[in-house]
Amino acid sequence: MSILQDILTYNASFVENKEYEPYITTKYPNKRIVVLSCMDTRLVELLPKAMNMRNGDVKIVKSAGALVSHPFGAIMRSLLVAVYELQADEVYVIGHYDCGMSAVDPESMIRKMVDRGVSQEIIDVVEFSGIDLKEFLRGFGDVATSVVKSVETIRNHPLMAKDIPVHGLVIDPNTGRLDVIEDGTVIRAK
C-alpha cells in the first residue's frame, strides 16, 4: 500500500470515529499570534508544546529556514493575512539550531535536480530569465543572523502595521529551549 493509501485509510477511520472533535476551533488564533517557523520535522509537535500552544491558539506559517526570502512573496502575504484578516497581534519568527538550510549547497542541489530529470536547458532558461539560481537556493550560515534578517524584513515591510511586535527566537530542536534573539516589544518601545 502507498503512503497516500495509508493516509486515506487512517483518515476514513479518524472521521468515522469523530476523532477530530477535540480539535474543533475557529479560524482566529486564540492567543492572537502568528508564528513563522522552519518546516523541519523535529518542530512539528515540539515547537507548539515548547510554547504552550494548542490547536487553535496560533497561526503557523512554515518555510525552509523560517525565511522571508521575498518581501512580496507567499510567506509575507500569509503574515499580512494573519495580521489584517485573522486577528494576529504579534509575529514570532522562530528558527532552529542545526537547520538544514544552513548547509544547503546550491551547486549540489542543482546537480541533484539534473540527476532527477531537470534538464540543463531548463536551468539555463531559468537563469537567462534573470533568476540567479545559486542565490535563490542559497542557505544561510548563522541561524541567529537569518532570524534577524527575516524579523527586519517583516518589521520594516511597508504594509505591516507598525504597532505589531515582531519577535525573533531560535529553538533547540532536541530540547525545545527557546533563545530570544529579538524581543519585538522592546524594539517597538524605542
From TrEMBL:
Top-rank taxon, per record: Bacteria
Cofactor note: Binds 1 zinc ion per subunit.
Enzyme class: lyase
Keywords per UniProt: Metal-binding, Zinc
Cofactor: Zn(2+)
Catalytic activity: hydrogencarbonate + H(+) = CO2 + H2O
Protein name per UniProt: carbonic anhydrase
Upper classification of the organism: Bacteria, Bacillati, Bacillota, Bacilli, Bacillales
